[in-house]
Every structure is written in C-alpha cells, then in structure tokens.
Amino acid sequence: MRHLFVTLVFTVFSFSAVDANDPIPPMNKQIVEYVNGVMGQQVDRGECWDLAYQALKLVNASWDGMYVYGEPIDFKSQKVYPGDIVHFQDAVVKRTEGFSTITETMEQHTAIILKVYAEGIYELAHQNTSFSGRKVGTSPIDLNGLVKGQVIVYRPVP
Fold it and tell me: How many CB atoms within 10 Å of residue 102?
C-alpha cells in the first residue's frame, strides 16, 4: 500500500497544467520571477498581502488596494496560471497525506500561485505563515479539498 501512495503522489504532482502552447500571461510571468527573487526573504512588513502588493506594484497592475487583486477567475472552470493571486476568506481546506488528514484553516490570507500541477492543485508562495514566518516560503495546496469558506483566484490586469 505504501508504494501505491508514493506512485499516486508522483503522478498527481508531475502533471503540468500549463504547456508550451498556452503561455503564461506576461504580467504573471513577471510576478513569478519577482517571487522567485525574494524567496526566503521578508517582503515589506512580512504580512501575507505585502507579497502580492509588491508584486502587483512591480508590474503596474490594477487592483483595489485591499483584497481584489485583479480580475476574479473561477479556478474550477477557468485556466489558472502561475502568477495568479489567491485570497482565502474563512477557508478550511482538507487533504490526505498517507494515512493522515491535514486541515488548513485560513481566516484571511493572500498567496501567489507559483506552480500549477493540475486543476485545483498548486504550489503557493506566501509569507506570514506558521512554516516560514514572515519570510516568503512555499507550500502545496489542493483547493479541491475546500470544505468551508471562500477562495478567490485573481488574474493580474493592467
């Protein structure tokens, strides 16, 4: 059974939902480059939304200065790209790892999608987390396990 789990995880996370025929939008590409350049560092005060704020400012994107980071997209039916920004509001996401169920609770949190593995499965870059503190770090998330709250994915726009 253990071997089957390892194979399943490898299969899910080796799939890339972004291919060469569907290039990442230019603003998104710049945001990903920015995030990779500040990985492991504290951006601004180290608040979660400071990372999104600085990335959007760098690419001259339009946003409301609060929690609307561009054009909302439906991550269940529309293409999600690295560089899109995700905002969680009273969200509870559950996922299974081996024989354990992991529950993530995000009262209000903002992150940047760094990698897209499959529909709803992403690598997030964020700060002000329990695992990386106020420095930029990454973690996987499977939004297919959303059981409560709201998750909005935004596409940066000029």
Answer: 13
Judging by beta carbons within 10 Å of its beta carbon (0-12, 13-18, 19+), is residue 130 exposed, middle or buried? exposed
Question: Residue 132 half-sphere exposure, CB side, CA atoms within 13 Å?
Answer: 20
Number of independent structural domains in the chain: 1
The partner residues of 141 in beta bridges, in order of sequence, read: 122
Structural domain including 119 reads: 2-155
Taking the complete model, does pTM exceed 0.90, yes or no?
no
3-class state of residue 95 by DSSP: strand
Q: Copy the structure tokens of residue 55.
A: 């990335």
pLDDT tens column, 79-110: 999 999 999 999 999 988 889 998 999 999 99
| pLDDT, tens only, 11-63 | 333 334 445 566 899 999 999 999 999 999 999 999 999 999 999 999 999 98
| Rounded Cα–Cα distance for residues 158 and 146 (Å) | 30
